Amino acid sequence: MAAPVETSSGLRTKYEPVVGLEVHVQLLTASKIFCSCSTRFGDPPNSNVCPVCLGLPGALPVLNRKAVEFATLAAMALNCQIRERSVFARKNYFYPDLPKGYQISQYDKPLAEHGFIEIESAKGRKRVGITRVHLEEDAGKSLHEGFPDAGDKTAIDLNRSGVPLIEIVSEPDIASPEEAYHYLTRLKEIILYTGVSDCNMEEGSLRCDANVSVRPRGEIKLGTKTEVKNVNSFRFIRDALEYEIDRQVDVVESGGNVIQETRLYNPHEGKTYGMRSKEQAHDYRYFPEPDLLPLVVDENWREEIRRTLPELPEARRTRMVAEYGINAQDAQVLTMTKTLADQFEAAARAARNPKRVANLVQSELIGRLKAKGLSIEQSPISMQGVAEAANLLESGKVSGKMLKDLLDLSFERGQDFPAVYEAEGRPEQSHDTAALEKIIDQVLAANPKQVEQYRAGKKTVLGFFVGQVMKLSKGQANPQLANELVEKKLG
């Protein structure tokens, strides 16, 4: 967590922060928003460029239909009203990675407005408004590292220039760094479910700017805001807000005035630093893009797009609780990603007891994946494998100990559970009473001291005997039967 600015004890409680977030999401189209250049990440610098995205004279933009559909789908998932007729505008500013000297965006007539998402806050459920969702093109990228003998020089890669973006602007409804974290987590989850972006922050597919101000508690008028730009993780955004809120409180309490500016966050120091004075809308000299007609998303097209809207996480959790008999916490974990939720549901339908599948995913699979640093997509055990394991456990053919050993073997060998189960000779729990009694006799004979303790009233020793029986039977004894037989022998 970022180290806060030194403030007097209790000062933070005198003020309330007001936070609004601007989130830029790259859309997963194969080509750029106004030309046919590839959007593929990681290609050699300046290899995916053309006269249009380089802004050369005479080159005209042509709008990518898929980008419009993806933007509209995301806006629908965020409960926005889709504007039938929106307008592209030129946002004029000069920066090395902006070859045209302007960015094609939307200004006073965006694609969508008046949405919301719901988050958990300290006071319970809370609705955060979404002001607008608009389409725009991305700028290029300035590279400051990786150039031998370049000194302090900067290079420009324009592959990203023209990649389609949506900008999602929240209302200033966020009242704490923690709420900002929950909002971003929820927003990312929804966008991932729609499939319009991979939201990969490391590759720049999702970037966030935070507008933050403070005001005395109970005051209606907003304080002067600063913008913290391009923070590349949700945790760092939370930390940056913690620092910036305390910094502004300290400025106000010392009799100073907060300056409206753009600031950058240094995660190594846990501090924000002034970058430049904050621009106003008029500084960008917005005017309608003369080379593009107004964008018309009519009712028929909207309905066509709406039919592709998937079941979103919140609704899916509610349905899964009702359909599979799992609890809300199970549903929360199992819908962390759409892939995990899809695979769980396929396994749950193939299993005798869906709740057992849910338990195995959480207690056995996810823990092993985390220990190995693997995602669910990289799991050696498929969800169908989990379903088969759950069925074996449900039928009593394998014990919990046997199952753990088989799952460990799956991860060691990088093989799915059914393959390992077959390779191990389809081991099953033993229900052979006579064979179990022989093992129990061996255990009791080898541990006379514990037998005396049990008969003297120390009943907890029973677990020790059952454990020894399980060990000698190599985990194949039925634990319940072993427990009953040990108790009978000792009685």
Question: What descriptive keywords fit this protein?
Answer:
single chain, 491 residues, alpha+beta, Arc Repressor Mutant, subunit A, nine-stranded mixed beta sheet, 16 strands, 40% helix, disordered N terminus
- Biggest sheet record: 9 strands, mixed
The overall number of domains is 3
Proportion of helical residues: 40-55%
Terminus-to-terminus distance: 59 Å
Outline, from the CA principal axes?
elongated
Oligomer description = single chain
What Rg is obtained from the alpha carbons, in whole angstroms? Answer: 30 Å
Mean pLDDT score, rounded? 88
The counted number of beta strands is 16
Q: Structural class of the secondary elements?
A: alpha+beta
- Order of strands across the main sheet: 2-6-7-10-1-11-12-13-14
Low-pLDDT residue spans: 1-9
Question: What proportion strand?
Answer: 15-25%
Number of discrete helical segments: 17
Explain this structure.
The protein is an alpha+beta fold and 491 residues long. The strands form four sheets. It has a nine-stranded mixed β-sheet. Strands 5-4-15 form a three-stranded antiparallel β-sheet, with no helix packed on it. It has a two-stranded antiparallel sheet with strand order 3-16. Helix 5 links the parallel strand 12 and strand 13 (261-266). The protein is elongated, with a radius of gyration of 30 Å. Residues 1-9 have low confidence and may be disordered. 40% of the residues lie in helices and 20% in strands. The chain is built from 17 helices and 16 strands. The protein folds into three domains: 15-301, no CATH class; 313-423, no CATH class; 433-490, Orthogonal Bundle (Arc Repressor Mutant, subunit A).
